[in-house]
Structure formats: structure tokens, C-alpha cells
Amino acid sequence: MTTLLEARGIAKDFRGIRALSEVDLTVEEGERVGLIGPNGAGKTTLFNCLSGVLQPNRGQVMFDGADIGNLAVNRRALLGIGRTFQRLELFNDSTVREHLLIAERVRLGTGSMWKDLLGLGRPTSDEIKVCDELLDLLGLGEIRDEPIEALSLGQGRLVEVGRALVTRPRLLLLDEPSSGLDREETATLARTLRDVQEQQGFAILLVEHDVELVADFTERTYVLDFGQLLASGTTDEVLADPAVRRAYLGDADLT
Amino acid sequence: MLIAANVGEDVFRAVLQGTPPGAVFALIALGFVLTYKTSGVFNLAFGAQAYVSAAMYFKAKVEWEWPTFWAFFISVILLAPAIGLLLERIIFRHLRTAPAVAKLVVAIGLTVAIPALFELLAGFEAVAGQTPQGILPDGASVFYDPFGVYPWSRNELAQLLVAVTAMLLLGAMFRYSSIGLSMRAVVESPRLAELAGVNSNRVSSLAWGISSLFAGLSGVLIAPRFNTLAAPDFFNIMVVAIAAAAIGKLVSLPWAVVGGLGLGITISLFTTFLPRWSDDLSWLRPFQENLTPSLPFVVLFGIMVLWPGIRQSIDSTDPLSGVDPPPPGLASSARSKRLTNVTRVTAILIIGICAFWVFAKADVGWMFLVTQAVIMSTIFLSITVITGFAGQISLCQASFAAMGGFAVFQLADRWDIPVLLGALIGAAIAAAVGALLALPILRLGGVWFAIATLAFAFFFDSVMIKFSWVGGGDTSLLQGTRVDRPDMFGIDFNNDKSFLLLVIVVFIIASFLVVRVREGTVGRTLQALRGSEVAAESIGISPVRVRVTAFALSAAIAGLGGSLLTIQQENVNYAGNFAPFAGLFWTVLVVTLSARTVEGAVMAGVSFGLFERAVLRNVFQLSGKWRFVLFGLAASQYARHPEGILEYGKGRSFGRLDALLDRWDPRSSRSGDESSSESEEPTVDGDSAADVDGAKTGGTR
Ligand SMILES: Nc1ncnc2c1ncn2[C@@H]1O[C@H](COP(=O)(O)OP(=O)(O)OP(=O)(O)O)[C@@H](O)[C@H]1O
Ligand SMILES: [Mg+2]
Question: Residue ranges of the domains in chain B?
Fold first, then answer.
């Protein structure tokens, strides 16, 4: 396997508050990796540094062998880093399907103002087909024409996942996809993700509080605590580590 | 030696000359920072408030012949803070969590409404054309010359002393009174102060009271600088104050003072030295004549463009800002297909009847107004694009329109180019300028974008139009050279009816294209960006590129509309049509009615062209100024109904109609339409997400 993402010595301060200090992390091609840690550990901050939303104070982000530290969010997205957001970031005034359609159009890169003016800017039937297939896969087919405001939190999360998947990412960053979902929805999501991933072969970096999901879904796991890497290794090893259990799980609530 | 000594003396003189107005600028800048930090409002309306106090003072003094003290008391001590407190209490307190851009729109509305409202209520017409007096007798004619370099007039001394005293009092209040301490805490970190139990309502009332008092005080002090009392001059002062506040990155009170004084002195340095340099360097001359009045705008623009740190500094000065939930998204309205169809049919019927009436019956006056309404609708489509689609407030649409108008004139005048071709070229020029302007300022983000466009509008107003290759200088164009209408396809467009037909066709084509853009890649990309910038970027959208496109398109439409207006009036008529204040009113009008739809642009155009004559004068026998008041105040609804009152009202009144149609329509499936008829105030994602976040802070699950 080749290394897809490699972050070296990422550090991020917020006005003197250290959110991340010297974090190293790698994701291999096609791998499923977990990232866990208590609230405020810096997981979202690390995601933001990887996807370009935040500029780390120190450290290097390599993607597919190239340094992407200076690239803007959208450039990184075009290279193949997709993500979802812990606090939902949806497009107001849009329907579910519109979220995916615009992502597909951007991926194809075929839009321009001149085409719009000529009346060629509407979604093509191919685009609609691609998006509808994915929506069906995610179980959102029924509500694809609903305005986004009418959706539940869990459905919103699925829309975010769908939107990210349309971009055909090589690495998908998922920030707590199961929060707001019930047990059944979580299981469906995990199954769907695995299906799509097997088809398309992208890698996943998963931030999750639901330890069961992490144990079930990921091969390797990193543990962050107060911005520092507490442990890393195969998921089973890490979850068995007493230090991790102390810092993260409080006491044994997973046995 | 001699020269050096002279230069030193001149600098000293410029400093002495610039300090009194600088102190007044500093005073408004202080108020600006105070309200911005305590309530997040970019209060452009301070200029209007300053005008109101100045006019009130003057009226009491001249018309009522009150003694100075009582005139000052009623206009500054009573009226000024009362306006501020009222605004805070009835409008801005309820907008605390609204997005910054929405608050800005409200402030722009007030900027339009307040002067007109007071002119109507308090009858300022009587004092409008006269030269203002200061607070000291013989203020302009008695001088003191302490340093033997520059004699201060009594007015200037009054400006300096009163402003400095006011600032010292504010400083003392911050230091010694408990409410002052709380206020300082809020200015430093609103969130921390809130956690510490500071009553933010009290603090923000106080801040509005003080800053409005300062604005009123500044208005009365600065008025003698102007030849006549007119609201726009005071608005310029406001822009100076924003520039001063921007030097302190909008957050630092001391730096705002430094900025105000610095600007006052810099302006007088320029007035001192530029003429001298331009004796030797002739190319400097147009700048010398034009740059000085526009210096604040240049400074403001320069600060924003060259100092990219300014935006970050605003976003993250509060150590706790990271934990704030994001402001709730603007409420949105989903529309059902059927509702759209009902609207369309109704609209076509109404338009048909109106068209019949206009073409068959209307007299010249009505004809002119109707034509103007159609042209304005075209111009307003430009606001539909930039504000409705891109979600940005541009305050320089009037400048783009003017570019179109000037282009038609220049081309017809110099090269005999037909006016309609000139109109297209004008649109292209406006688009190019728009794209160039957009590049540096787009990264600034919502509110700063609006302010930068405002600075540009003023720059264009005070510098650009004076160049012979733009506005024709002092010669022809500004004073009304005629441009003949075209004679094409065997149709003579000097005939008002055929010209009306032409502008209707242009409007229809333009709105058709605008709708295509909305449904196309650009529109959908903008929609995504409006919904969530970071998410849009995360799927590969480049915000800058598409926004530059949108801004250029918007500028092109405005340019096209502006040139049509020029062709209609056979004259550019810059001051009447395209002054910066006009641009403010346009934005207010469109945003109030509906910025998202073509109907909104039409309604705004109709309101602009016909409301005054058809409704205000004919029905209510009211002054035309009421439209500024009505639309300006209605803009305060923007924060709650960003889709505009037109859409909102339609949604409400047709909600019932929709339900009625449901009962009759056997094919309709209830479930499909429910969301649309009941989604007047849909739940906002931000809220629910924030709840989840809040619930989770308890720890791991
Ligand atoms: N924009 C910001 N400004 C200031 N501080 C911030 C900002 N974003 C995050 N922080 C701080 O950085 C630290 C790490 O936050 P982060 O959101 O990355 O944690 P997390 O691991 O994702 O937590 P959670 O499980 O609650 O999502 C926290 O102390 C947080 O308060
Ligand atoms: Mg997080």
C-alpha cells in the first residue's frame, strides 16, 4: 500500500491556547482509520488543518506525495480530499438533490457563465442519474426533492456524506457522522459507507465518539488528548490500551 | 535652509489646521467602534444622525431664535441620544444574533430613512439652503493665533475643545464608573463579559446612547465647515470616521482616536502640499483637485485592500469567539410550483392591463415614468444577481450604472458611435471595472465587501467623474449635452412609445438571462456559497472565481441599465441619477421588496418610478420623501425576512390560497406540498446543530 496522506508535526494555537501540538498521522490508500479523543482534544481542528480550512502554525501536510500545505480548501478538494462537518454545513434554500448536483457539476468542471447564458447550465440527465443513484444508496431517494430545512439532523448528515462522495474523493474525512443518528441509522450508514468504499476504493479518516462504530469500522486508530497524540496502532490494540481507556473512556463502559 | 524652514512651518500649519476636524472625526469613530463592539452593528446611520442634530440645532437657533444653549441642549443632549436609544431598543436589540450583513442592511435603510423622516417631521426645508452656524457667536470670523502660524477660527477651537472634552469624559467614565468598566469589558470581549455576568442590554443601550450623542455632537460641531446644510455631506463624514475606525481595526478605541486625528491632519497636509508639487508636476493636477476630498475613501479602500489581516482580526479578537454557535442562517422560503404559476398568471394579467393603458392612454409624464420604471427594473436586476444570488451587498451599483451612461456619451460625442452599441460597450466597461474591483475586495467577506464598494462609490463620485475621459470634467457631460436616440430598423426611438417598447424588450432579455444564470452553474454555485462557504469550498468550489463572475455580471447589467437611463433622458444627469446615495437607496429598495426574484426587481423598479406619483402624491397627497422613509424603515425587516417583504407577504397570503387550491385539486398529494406551504419560518439547521453540540459538552457518550 502507498501512503495517501501524511501529516507531520502539525501544531495549531488559538491565541495562546494550544489546540494541537506536533501531531503525526498517516493514512494509506484505501484504508479506514479512526481518530478518537475526548471533547476538545483537537480532532476537528486537525481535520480543518488537513482540509485547509485552518492553516497550522507548524507542520506539513503531504497528499499523494505532494506538499499541499499552501493549497486552499477547494484546491485540496479537487485533489481528492472530501469531508463532512461536525456542525452541519448545508446549503440553505436547496433541495437534497441540489446538494449533490452542484458537487457533481464542480467535479466535472464543465460549467461556465457563458453556458449558463446559453441555457446550458441546468443539470444534465447524466448528472441527475449519478446523483439519484447515490441518493438511493444512502436511503435518501424518497426525500431528494425536499428542501434541506425540512430534514432531520441524521438525514442532514447523510446529505453531507452524499455530497462529499459525489466529488469522488480519494480520502474522505468524516467528522462524527453518527451524532444525531439513531442506532439503526448508524448501522445503515456504516454499511453504505463500506459498500461505496469497496466500489470506489477511497480511504476514510473517521472522527467518532461512538466507540463501537470505530471498533467495527476502522483498521487503525489514533487517539488525541489535549492536542497530543496519546496512542496509535491497530484499533483493537488502541482500544485495549489502559492509558486510552483512562483518558477517553473514563472507566470501562466498553467490555 | 530657508526652504526647509518653510516646509517645517507648513507642516506645522497643516497639523494645526487638521487637528480640529480630526478631533471631530475621532469622536464619530469612537462611537462607531463602541456600537460595533457592543452590538455588532456597522452603523452607517451615524452620518444621518449627525445631520439630524445639526439641522435641529440650526433650526432651533435660526427659525425659533432660541438661545445657543437651549438649541444645543435639545439637538445634542436630548435628541441625539434619544435616537440612538430608540434604534437600539426597537431594532438592533432584536438583531443581536443576526448575521453581520443583515445588520448592515438595516443600518443602510436607516441611513436612507432618518434624514428624510426628520426633514418631513421637523421641517428642515427652512434651513436647508443656508450656511450653518457654529456654537460660538461669530465662529467663522474671529480668529486666534497662538503660534503665529495658523489662526484657528472660533468654530475650529470649539470643535477641538468640545471633542477633546467629550473624549476625556468617555475615558474617565471607562476608568471610574462601574457601568463604564462593564462597557470596556464588553468592548474587549463580549463573550467573556457575558460570562462574567455583565448585563449586555444595559451596556449596549449605553453604547448606543453615547455613540449617538457623539454623532450628534460631531454634526453640530462640523456643520460650519459646509457651505450649506445637506445630508450627503454628513454621510461623507461618516465614511471618514469608518476609515479612522478601520485604522484601529474597528476594535481599538485609542487607535480610532489616532486614526481620526491622523486623517484630519493628512487631509490638510495634502491640501497644503499637493498644489505646490503640482506646479512642477502637471500630471498631478487632476489628482490635486480631486483626490483631497476623496482621501478618506482612498484611505479606507487602501486599508481594506492592503491590510488583509483586518478581516481575521475582526473574526478572532474575541478569545471565546470559537465557542460561539454560528449566527443562525437566514431564514429561507421554499416556493411551491403552483404558487409560482399563480403569481405568473396574475403578473401577466396586471402587466397586460397596464401596458394597454400606457400605450393607449398615458400622457407624456406617465410615459416617462413608466419607461423609467422599466429601465430601473433592469438596473435592479443587477442587485438581484449580486445580493439575491451571491448574497453580497454592493453599494456601488450606481457607479456602474454611471459608467454605462458616461460610455454612451463619450462614444457618441467623440466617435459618433450609435448609442445602443455604446450601451453594450458601456456594459462591458462596467463589467471589466467590476471584475477588477472585485478581485482585491472579495476576500474581505460580507460587511467589508459592502464598505469597500461604498468607498469605491465615493471615490468614483469625487475623483473619477471629474476626469474628462470619464465624466467629461467641468464641460459638457455633467451639464447636459444631448445625446440623440437611435433610429434603427426603420423605427425612430425618439418616439416615446417605441423607446418604451425597446426598453421592455431589453428588460425581458436581461431577466431571461438572469433566470438562466440562477438555474445554471453560476447560480447554483452561488447558492451553495450562500448556504455554507466552507462546505462549498470542500466540494471544490472556488469562491473568488464565481463571485468575481457574479460581480462582473451584475456590473454589466447595471451599466446596461444606466446607459438606457441616459438614452431615455438624453443626458447623463449624474447628480440626479447616479450619486452614491442613489446607490444606497436602490439597494434598500430591492432588498426590502425581494432581492431573490425577477418580480422583486420589477416591483422595485415600479416603486422607484411610480410609487411617488401614483401612491404618495395622488392617493395620500404626501411628499415624495416618504418613500425613503417607508422603504428605509422596511429594510429593517431584512434580518428577519431576507427574501424580502414581497416574497414573505406572498408566502403568507398565498399560503391560504394554496390550501384552498389543494382542496380543489384532486391530483395534488398532500405530502408533497405541505413543506412548501408551511415553510414560512422553517427551522434553521444552525440551531439544531448547536443544540447537539451543547448537549454533547457533557462528555463522551
Ligand atoms: N476557531 C477557534 N478559535 C479558538 N479556539 C478554538 C477554535 N476552534 C477550536 N478551538 C479550541 O481548540 C480546542 C480543540 O477543539 P476541537 O473542536 O478541535 O476539538 P474536538 O476534538 O473536535 O472536540 P469535540 O469532540 O467536542 O468535537 C478546544 O479547546 C477549542 O475550544
Ligand atoms: Mg470536533
Answer: 23-235, 362-469+494-614+621-643
Q: What is the largest CA-CA distance in chain B?
A: 97
Residue carrying C-alpha cell 467629461 = B472
Give the integer Cα–Cα distance in Å for A241 and A245.
6
pLDDT at A73 over 60: yes
CB count, 10 Å around CB of A197?
A: 18
* CB environment A166-192: b (16+ within 10 A), e (fewer): bbebbbbbbbbbbbbbeeebbebbbeb
d(CA B579, CA B556): 18
Enumerate the residues of chain A whose CB falls inside 8 A of the CB of residue B318.
none
Bridge partners (DSSP) of residue A23 are A10
At B114-146, the pLDDT tens digits run 888 888 877 777 666 677 777 766 666 767 777
For residue B400, the model assigns a pLDDT of: 93
Residue B39 confidence class, pLDDT cut points 50, 70, 90: confident
DSSP B644-667: -HHHHHHHHHHHHHHHHHHHH-TT
Average pLDDT along chain B: 75
In angstroms, the CA B232 to CA B119 distance is 13
Comparison of pLDDT for B124 and A163, the residue scoring more: A163
Tell me the ipTM for this assembly: 0.90
CB A194 within 8 A of CB A217: yes
Dump pLDDT digits (tens) for B161-192.
Answer: 888 888 888 888 877 877 777 777 776 666 66
Structure-block grid coordinates of residue B7 = 516646509
CA distance B204 to chain A (A): 26
- Whole-number pLDDT of residue B476: 46
Locate all alpha helices (DSSP H) within B40-99, ordered by sequence: 46-62, 68-72, 80-90
Lowest mean pLDDT among B248-252, B437-441, B484-488: B484-488
Which amino acid does the sequence have at B670? R
Contacts of A249 in chain B (CB under 8 A): 700
CA distance B387 to B96: 22
Give the CATH fold of the B362-469+494-614+621-643 domain: ABC transporter involved in vitamin B12 uptake, BtuC (1.10.3470)
- Contact criterion met (CB below 8 Å) for A13 and B675: no
So what's the pLDDT on residue B310? 57
Cβ distance A91 to B532 less than 8 Å, yes or no, reads yes
Beta strands A203-207 and A171-175: pairing type?
parallel
Model pTM score: 0.82
pLDDT at B612 over 60: yes
Among B343, B369, B363, B413, smallest CA distance to B571 is for: B413
Within 8 A by CB and 6+ apart from B668, the residues are B661, B662
Q: Phi/psi zone of residue B168: left (φ > 0), alpha (ψ -120 to 50 degrees), beta?
A: alpha
A149–B542 CB contact, under 8 Å: no
Query: Who among A78, A88, A146 is closest to B689 (CB)?
Result: A88
A43 CA to centre of ligand 2 in angstroms: 5
Per residue in B225-239, pLDDT (tens digit) is 777 777 777 887 888
Are B396 and B239 in contact, with CB atoms under 8 Å apart?
A: no
